[in-house]
Amino acid sequence: MTVTDVYNLQNEKVSEVELKDEVFGVPIKRHVLHQVVVGQLSNRRSGTAASKSRSDVKCSGSKLWRQKGTGRARVGRGSSPTRRGGGVAFGPSPRDYSQKVPKKVRKAALRMALTDKVQNNHLIIVEDFNFPEIKTKNFVLAMQKFDVKKALIVTDDKSENLEKSSKNVPLIKVMRYQGLNVYDILRYDHLFLERPAVQKIEEALVS
Length: 207
Description:
Elements: E1 2-7, E2 13-19, H1 21-24, H2 30-44, H3 103-119, E3 123-126, H4 136-145, E4 151-155, H5 160-165, E5 172-176, H6 182-187, E6 190-194, H7 195-206
Parallel strand pairs: 1-3, 3-6, 4-5, 4-6
Antiparallel strand pairs: 1-2
């Protein structure tokens, strides 16, 4: 097991915690992380882009003018893509972009992402993020104590004061441990974990 320091909001060491190697010390495979991140981003796509083809345009189906005798080029109906107001040729249509990634692969990638933070010393475990009041200034001062600008904060339970205090701070995201995912861990430079959340994350990823 890896022993890591636990800090308070003043960046003072208050205790230590043991991290399970099964979660925070696994081999990192880049292709697995890539597969899961691509799957996550694909699942976020709405896939609602659409355009009208020539069959969808409301238009008379009759020929605009006769085939011969006018001295002009031959022409069909007014919904042709070559005419103004006509349909779109090869335009987008609604589709499903979602990719199914096996549960075991998602769990493995999550363990790899957490291991990456530990190996790069970008994992910070905090005793708790209990702020006495909703005040952005107090939250910014706490982040300055750790010299961190871009971070993901994972809490054990709902913390209204923390969530509202950090809402207007750029490059900071707060979530509960149930929503922990590979993309957000890799996207942010530092990862803050509340001490009670560490045990629950280990329980979820070891089983």
